[in-house]
Every structure is written in structure tokens, then in C-alpha cells.
Amino acid sequence: MSYEGFANYYDALMEDMPYPQWIDFAENCWGKEEKPKTIVDLGCGTGNISIPLAEKGFQVYGIDRSSEMLTIATQKEVNHSHVIKQNGGSITWLEQDMKDLELPSSVDCIISFCDCYNYITDEAHIVQSFKKVYEYLKSKGLFIFDMLTEFQFQFYSDEQPFTYNEENLSYIWTCAYDNEHHEIEHDLTIFAQQSDSNYLKINEIHTQRAYPIEWIKSQLSHVGFINISTFGDFEFESPNDVTNRVFFVAQKSSE
Q: The pTM is what?
């Protein structure tokens, strides 16, 4: 997964993603506990969740492994800087891998949305990331993240190919699902019109892995998290066999 070419067109292609729903979900979780002041957004991409949170007055760390995505996030932040400053918020952008999280101090809450954890295909790296999250959370801090399910991967496999065709930007997206390894490979070819009316062709291959819900919960528990809950598809109801996106909410124990 590179996002080197994709980063410049990410927002155009992802404009229908439910970013407000992710923020609402997090705020509903916080409503049951003390509202956080400092938040880490793991896999922040171009800042579509980090920036609105900062506008609400939170101190946000936006973390992503792609320097290209962070460059765009930084540029976008400029257009929101007045509201962020007015409401007492801030953003610090950090280029890091999720499994190698390093922060200057502990934080109140760590979130990771838009199925970022599915991109970690090594079980050991999942556990390593959970340990880092636990290390940097304050006592009783919340860890909130989502993952796509095998049901969703199978849907992608059954329904592909997907296409997008606008005046200046098009893509062809195909998928291949490996049932044995619970991994799906996304092959994305983008055609972007340039200023000279020629088209730039960009090809990216992204791999994601689905994990059993109970395995994820067990690893969170082994790391030390308590009060581990799971919910399905932005609703505060238990996931089922046709859930597309599972939300995990876990709390660091009091120290």
C-alpha cells in the first residue's frame, strides 16, 4: 500500500465516505465517559476526521504512514485554521506506522476509523499496535476503531468490478478475495486528466485482511484493555452475520 499517486485524488474519490458518522460515533462513546481533550487519529489520511475534531476544540494528533497524505492534510488544515484556533483546538501531524506509535505524552483517546486496521495483515503487528495504543493512553482512556468483516470482503468480491467516471477523473477497481487467508486484494487503476488534457494513469494495489471478532477482543484483553464492546455498522447494537463494519470500543484500566 503506497498511496503515493492515490493521495492527490483521495478526497475526490472518497467524498461519499461517512466521516460525520464516524465522528458522531466517537462522540456518543465519549458521552458515556468523561469527554477527552487529547485525541490520536491513527491512519488519519488527508485529515477528514482530524480537522473536524480540531475544529471542535480537541487537541489532535493526526498520524499516518503516508507523507503524501499528510502533505495534503497539512494544506487542508490552513483553510480551517481560523475555526480551529478560535475554538481552542490544534493538530499535530506525525508520519508514523500504526504499529510503531510514538507520542510526546499520553492522551485521553485514540481512534482509528475507515478500516485502517484491516490493512495490517500480520497478526503480530496487530498486537504490537494494540500494545502501543495501550501504552500511550491515559488511565481509563478509550480506544475506538473499526474493521471490515469477511461479509463485506465477500460483497466486494461478488460485486466487483467497480467504476467511477467523472469529467476529469475515472477509476476501475477490481478485487480478488482469498478465503483461505481472509485477505482481499484491491487493484485500483486511476485515470486523472492533467492540465494539458492528457491523462495520468495511476495503479495501486492494496491488501486488507479480515479478523475474527473474538480474536481481536482476546488480543485487546491480553494487552490489558477492559470493558471491551463491539457494535455493528455505526449502530450501538451487537454485530451479526451480515455486519459490514465492526466497531470496537475498549478502555484502558485505571492505574
A: 0.95
